[in-house]
Write the C-alpha cells for this entry.
Amino acid sequence: MDVNLNRRPVPKPDMISNPCAACSVRDMSICSVLNGDELREIASIATTLEFSPHDPIIDEGEPAEFLFNVTGGTVRLYKLLPDGRRQITGFLCNGDFMGIAVNQNYAYSAEAVDRVKVCRFARNRLETLLDKYPHLEKRMLGMASNELIQAQDQMMMLGRKTAKEKIVTFLLSLSQRQVKVGGKASPVALPMSRTDIADYLGLTTETVSRTFSLLKRDHAIRIEEGGMISLPDIDSLQQVADGY
Amino acid sequence: MDVNLNRRPVPKPDMISNPCAACSVRDMSICSVLNGDELREIASIATTLEFSPHDPIIDEGEPAEFLFNVTGGTVRLYKLLPDGRRQITGFLCNGDFMGIAVNQNYAYSAEAVDRVKVCRFARNRLETLLDKYPHLEKRMLGMASNELIQAQDQMMMLGRKTAKEKIVTFLLSLSQRQVKVGGKASPVALPMSRTDIADYLGLTTETVSRTFSLLKRDHAIRIEEGGMISLPDIDSLQQVADGY
DNA sequence: CGGTGCATTGATCAGAATCAATGATCGTGG
DNA sequence: CCACGATCATTGATTCTGATCAATGCACCG
C-alpha cells in the first residue's frame, strides 16, 4: 500500500505553498470539507511524519497531545491486558483519522504495520480550528459516526461469528476498503501478519492459518504473487460472511 | 416504532413552560451544554415517549428519521445475523444518546428492556439545531468519542476475555454506571435477562448462569433481594476483570 | 550457509456450546 | 386462593470448536 521505502517524494511547487491541496488522500480525510484557505491554515498546524514497520505511533495511557491523519501505509490500533493478551481494534489506512476516541489520554496504542505516513496535528491547535470551522467539526462527527457503525459490526463479528466467518468477513472488508480508495475488489493486499489478523479477529495464529488453508482447499480464495489474495466469487463469500 | 401502548404521563406545570429544564437526566445528556432558551428550543422539537418491556424502539435498516435521548429505563441495542444469532452492542440508560451511529438508515435495532422513557427528536430538526449551536455539536462529538472508547473496551472483552472475566467486567461496568448516575457501587441492579447478558458478552445463557453460580460459590458476588447483586470486594473483582 | 522470524500442519486439550432435564418465578384464570 | 401454564434460570452430560503444545517448513538476510 504505497511502501515508499527509501526516498521521499520531491515536493511539487503547489505542495510548498499549500501542501494539503495536493494531498492524495484529502478527499477521504477530514480535510475533504476544507477550501483552499482553510487547507492552508490546517497545513500550517500539520506535521508530516513517517514510521517504519513496528514503530510505535501512540501509546495507551499517554497524554493525548496529538491527533493524526493516516496518509499512507497501514496502522494497527490495539489494547493490551496486563498478561499480554492483545486485541487489535482496527487497522487504519489512507484517509483514516486517528485520535477521535480520545479524552485526556490515549485510550489505545497504535503501531505502524508497514511503512506509514501520517499528518500530525497538535490537539489544542486542531480544536481551535474546530471551533473556528463548524463544518470541520461536523465532518469529525460524521467520521465518528462511521467508526461507531464499524465498531458495532466488529462486535458482531467477535461475539457471534465462527472462525471461518470471521476470516471471510475480514477479507471482504479489506476488499471493500480497496474499492473505496479506488482500487480493485479482488486481489486483496494483506500487509499485516497472521498474528495481527488473529488479534483482530479474536483467534490464534494457528486457527487463522488453518482457516486460510481450508478456504484455499475449497477454492474460496487463491494466493497470488506477493501474498495477494484473490477472491474468485465475492457474492458467495458474502454469504459465508453473513452466516447463511 | 412509536408503540406508546396506553397513556403518556401527565405533564407537571414546569414541564409545560420548559420541560427540559426539569429533566432529571439533563446533566448527563447532550442537553447539559444548553442554557434556558436553548432548552426551550430543543424542548419544542422533542417528543417524550414511553415503551413497555420488549417494545421495539428502532429497527435496523429503517430510515433514520429520529434520534433519541434515554430518560428512564434500559434499552438494548443489537444487530442480528440472518440465521438469528444476535449481538447486543450496548445497554443504554439514563442520559444515554441513541442514534449517533446513524447514517441514512439505522445501523442497529433497539428494544426496551424494562419500562423505558425517551425523548425523541426528528433528525433533520435536530441537525438544524446542531448547525445553530456549535457547542451542541461539540457535545455530540464528545459523546461519540466516549462511545468509541467504550466500543473498544467491548471489543477487548469479546475477543480476548474468558467467560468469567466477561461476566465480572460486565458487573463492574454496571456498578460504575450506577455510581456515575449518583447511586451506590455495590448492590447492582440487573434489569436484563440471562439471554440478554449472553448476547452482550458473546456467550450462551447456560454459560452465563454457570458463571454466576461459580462466582456465588466463591463468594465473589452475592444475590440480594429483588435480584440485586452485591459485590463484596470490588478491588479483587477488578483484578479478575483485568485478567491478572 | 546458518540463523531468525513467520507460516503451516499435526496431536491433544479445554473452555464454552449444545442437548436435555429440572427448578423457580410469575401472571392468569378457574 | 390455588393450580396451571409459560417463561426464564439453573444444572448436568456430552460434544465440538478453537486453543494449546509441538514440530516442521519456508523465506529472507547477514
In short: Chain A touches chain B through 44 residues (CB under 8 Å). The longest strand of chain A covers residues 66-72.
